[in-house]
Amino acid sequence: MRTVVLSLIGALVATEAHRFPEDEPTYYCHPKIQWDDVPPREDGSDAQLERVLIFARHGARTPVHDMTCWVGDETRFTCPTETFYGFTNSPSAGRSPGFTRIRGKEGVLPGDNCVLGQLVDAGVQMHVANGKQLGATYKAALGLEEVPSEPEVMFRSTDVPRVYQSVQAFAMGMFPEITSEDASGLKIIIPDSQRDTLTPSAKVCPRLNDALDEFYDSPEAKDRVDRSKFERAFMGLTTGRPEDFSTNDPRDMEHLYSGLYDCMTSHVCSTVPSEPKNVPLGLGTSSPLFERVEEDATFWLNNRYGTTEELKRLAYGPLIGDILDDLSIPGRRFSLYLGHDT
């Protein structure tokens, strides 16, 4: 087994070439937590800043897939950050207390109190830092108050806890005074998940599934699947899940690759509270196969929507329409769109 693994790694190394810092294996993990500061303006222009739109992904999280990553996986997750739930402005009851969420005995992830896809403390830190940095750069330039209000500021999220919690962390960093405000006075746009345009959706554009089926049946999709057949066979071997990875159906690739990449990053990323940081031989960050899995996961999750003009239009056209509407709102200065990888 070890000989087979090392032979494959050697073959992959021979064809591997370094590209950009973004292609480093742990770039996705964002281990530095904070990006470099926005560089100062040096053009000497008298132009005045009118609008800023920010597009971001939620912060670091626990795994989202309820699955066996590999046979013999002993990793456990510990989540000191907790979330709370409540309601406000009820005509009959006013404002509820904030209840802290616990998972009880029915948790999926091994360890202490973590739930699938939960925002972890490093993810909170990431967006607090983002808010601070962008606030220092844009708040005064846009003439924004210390406590934001509509229509000047717009926050938008998907209806997923880790995403709107990331918005809250960002807002805390950019507008620290809001922590002393009545939360019922702050607003965030969270559309119904069935109609949300922040991620490609067949509920929003019913023809999206037909366009995807056309792509899955195309020579391009089948060729991509065929070219990665040997790699998938190795993945099945090293994970102890050969049957899962034996499929050659393009429709299975998104779940297969994004699931494995989710497993790998949640085990190796320093920003995810998991121990031990072990993955099977051949799937570690020093292996070229780690990057191959990332590339295929990115393609089948996101980049498939860029393979045809029809897919681009159906997947992203509705969001572009929302952005154009946002740009037409008088008095709006700052918009934050916070979602997922897509």
- Helix vs. strand class: mainly alpha
User: How many individual domains?
Assistant: 2
Strand order of the largest sheet: 1-8-6
Number of alpha- plus pi-helical segments: 9
Gap between N and C termini: 37 Å
| Largest sheet composition | 3 strands, parallel
CATH homologous superfamily grouping of the largest domain: Phosphoglycerate mutase-like
- Order of SSEs: HEEEEEHEHHHHHEHHE
Principal-axis shape equals: globular
* Overall number of strands: 8
Unreliable spans are 1-16
* Percent of residues in β-strands: 5-15%
Helix content: 25-40%
Q: What would you report as the Rg, rounded to the nearest angstrom? A: 22 Å
Protein name: Lysophosphatidic acid phosphatase type 6
Family: Belongs to the histidine acid phosphatase family.
Pfam families: His_Phos_2
InterPro entries: His_Pase_clade-2, His_PPase_superfam, Histidine_acid_phosphatase
Could you walk me through the main structural features you see in this protein, from its secondary elements to its overall organization?
- Belongs to the histidine acid phosphatase family.
- Pfam families: His_Phos_2.
- This is Lysophosphatidic acid phosphatase type 6.
- With 342 residues, the protein is mostly helical.
- It has 2 domains: 2-29 and 205-309, no CATH class; 52-201 and 326-339, 3-Layer(aba) Sandwich (Rossmann fold).
- It has 9 helices and 8 strands.
- It is globular and about 55 Å long.
- Mean pLDDT is 91; it is low at 1-16.
